[in-house]
Amino acid sequence: MAIAKAERLMNLALCLLGTRRPLSKRELRESIEAYLEAGSDDSFNRMFERDKDDLRELGLVIETVENLDGEIGYLARRDSNRLPPITLDAEEAAALGLAAKVWQQARLAGAASGALQKLRAAGLPEDVDPYEAHGALEPRIPVHEAAFEPLMLACRDRRPVAFDYRKANAARPETRNVEPWALECWRGHWYLAGFDRDRGAERVFRLSRITGRVRSRGASFTVPVPDVVTVRETVAGWAGEIADRTARIRLRSGAGYPLRAKATAVRELGDGWDELTIPYGHGLDAWLVEFGPDVVVLEPAELRADVVDRLRAVAKG
Asked: How far is CA 11 from CA 7, 15, 17, 51, 61, in A?
């Protein structure tokens, strides 16, 4: 059984690498003997999907393309599956091992371990133990959002997606159709950068605001993926990190530690409240809303009005 599956995977990989145009499921089934022997269409579909996932897990980049008739096809471009020789010194190998330790959790652990095995085969020094227990650093990046894994796979496979997204000031979620580019963790939250088809522009989405299931779309990307996707800089600007003004707020004592860390001045008011001066930039109103009744905006007036509007929208929802 193991030999038969390996042969089937090899034949599928050769078909996908050897074609100059996307091949449909029907064409692949007619080209590979093991698929012809499948008892039914359902059996073939299950077998094909498993094989495709296995090849991707092994590192083969398989593109999904929709033709003008709406038929889905698959191919693996040679230029996307060709790597230069990999040479790593001890410091580079240690850095990769440290990065892999970040993902020793949930379903990402297997992928990280598999990646390290491939690196060892490609020249990772044998004397470097990426899981060495006495290292000074133990990095961890929490992943609690259910949308993370399907979006990570969609970014990898260049597959458009659709999901329901609720903005901070919205009463209900809206469906967004997105070509996903990259995921990044910033200040403990995961964000997705991509091209929003409905708005015709780049957008950044916070994963914790995605509701329901992430749905895959068969069509290919309509715009090129930028060489550099600046998720962090975009989110920083929206969150008020890039600020040219200041705002004064009242903050309940013992609450809002992220706000206190940003404050340029803090004054005790008594009765369980403090007054803070914080940098003010685009998106600060959305961040302040997250602290609910623990925050009262004193000035400027436009920031106070924006926060009140957002709170009213949430209350109506």
From this structure: 6, 6, 10, 11, 16
